[in-house]
Amino acid sequence: MGSCFAENMGNFLREGKFQVDMNPFGILYNPLSIGAAWKEIRNGKVYEESDLFFYKGLWHSSMHHSIFSAESPRLVLQRINDRLQQACERVQRLDWLMLTFGTAYVYEQKDTGRVVANCHKLPEELFTRRLLSVDEIVDEYQELIADLTVICPQARLLFTVSPIRHQRDGMHANQLSKATLLLAIDRLQQLFPGRVWYFPSYEIVLDELRDYRFFAEDMVHPSPLAVRYLWQRFSATCFPAETLRILEAVEDIRRDLEHRPFHPHSEVYHRFLGQIVLKIERLIGKYPYLDFQKEIELCHIRLNP
User: Fold this and answer.
1) CA 120 to CA 67: how far, in whole Å?
2) How large a percentage of the chain has pLDDT more than 90?
C-alpha cells in the first residue's frame, strides 16, 4: 500500500507469482491516510453514499484515488466495496504488509479537521496543508502494528520511502518531508525489532542512480530502467536463494510467452508452446501454490486458434 513506487514493486511481485493485493484504495501518499485505509480494511468497512461527495460531474471518495470516481454513486460504491471485500479476505493470510510513504505533508479539511487521501482538485481554500511530525506518524503506527500483531501474529511490516520527489514547495521542503518519514520509520524499527523492516529505495535512487537515464522526462519519476534496478536490489536483498530460483524460472516462462513467431501455425512453434506448458507443469508440480492459469490458457489459445 502507498505511493506509485508501491505499485511498481507490487507489479513485479505479481509477475513473479507472489500472492499480492495491491493498493485497494488506489495510490496513497501520506502515512495517516495509509494507516486509515488499513483500519478500514481491518474493520471491514462498507461504504455508503454518505461517504461520497459530488464535484464537477463525478462522485468521489476522499479516501480513494480518482480511479474509483464515476458519474454514478452506485458504481463508485460497487468499485470501492468490491475492492475492500477482496482486501478483507486476505488479511488473515497476510505474511508481509509493505507500506510506501510518499510525503509527510497532509491536507486537512478545514470544516472537519479530517486528513484526506485525495483532494480530487477541490478548491485549495477548503484545506489546510501541513507537515506531520515524527511523533504523529509513530503514534499512528504503534497502534497499527499492535493491532496487526493480534490478528496476524506471523505478519511483518516492510517500509519504504518513495524515491519520487514532491517539488511543489521546492527541494528543501521535499527534503524535510522525506527526513520526517525516515526518522519515523527508524523509530518504529527501534520499537519493533524483528517485526518492522526497511528497504532503502529512496537512498538507492539518490546515491546510486544519479545519471539522467535513470529518470523520466520530468526528471522526478524514476525511469523504467531505474525501477527494474530497484526491483533487482529489492529481490536480492529480501528473498532467499530458492525464491530467486523460482523467480528466474517464472521470468524464463514469461520471456518465452513474449516471443512472437514468424510462423505461428507451424509445427515448430506448436512444439515450442508445448515445451512452455511442460515447464509450467514441472514448476507447479514442485511449487503447487503458483498460479499459471492465464499462461496455460494463452498457450492453449495459440495452439488452437
Assistant:
1) 11
2) 84
Provide the angle, in degrees to the nearest 10, between the axes of the packed helices 267-286 and 241-258. Answer: 160
Contacts of 248 (CB under 8 A, 6+ apart): none
Alpha carbon distance 37, 24 (integer Å):
9
CA dist 103 and 175 (Å) reads 10
* Cα 104 to Cα 119: distance, rounded to the nearest angstrom: 16
Which domains are assigned to the chain?
A: 4-238 (3.40.50), 240-305 (no CATH)
Tell me the pLDDT band of 294, cut-offs 50, 70 and 90.
Answer: very high
pTM > 0.90: yes
Report the mean per-residue pLDDT for the chain.
94
Considering only CA atoms, which of 34, 70, 63 is closest in space to residue 47?
63
pLDDT in tens, 224-242: 999 999 999 999 999 999 9
* 286/304 Cα distance (integer angstroms): 28
CA-to-CA separations, 7 to 4, 12, 204, in angstroms, rounded: 5, 9, 18
Sequence length of the chain is 305
Give the whole-angstrom CA distance, residue 56 versus residue 66. 13
Per-residue CA distances from 70 to 66, 161, 180, 267 (Å): 9, 31, 35, 48
Cβ within 8 Å of residue 114, ≥6 positions away: 62, 108
Of 30, 16, 14, nearest to 1 by C-alpha is 30
Q: Are 115 and 30 in contact (CB under 8 A)?
A: yes
For 45-62, what is each residue's pLDDT tens digit?
999 999 999 999 999 999
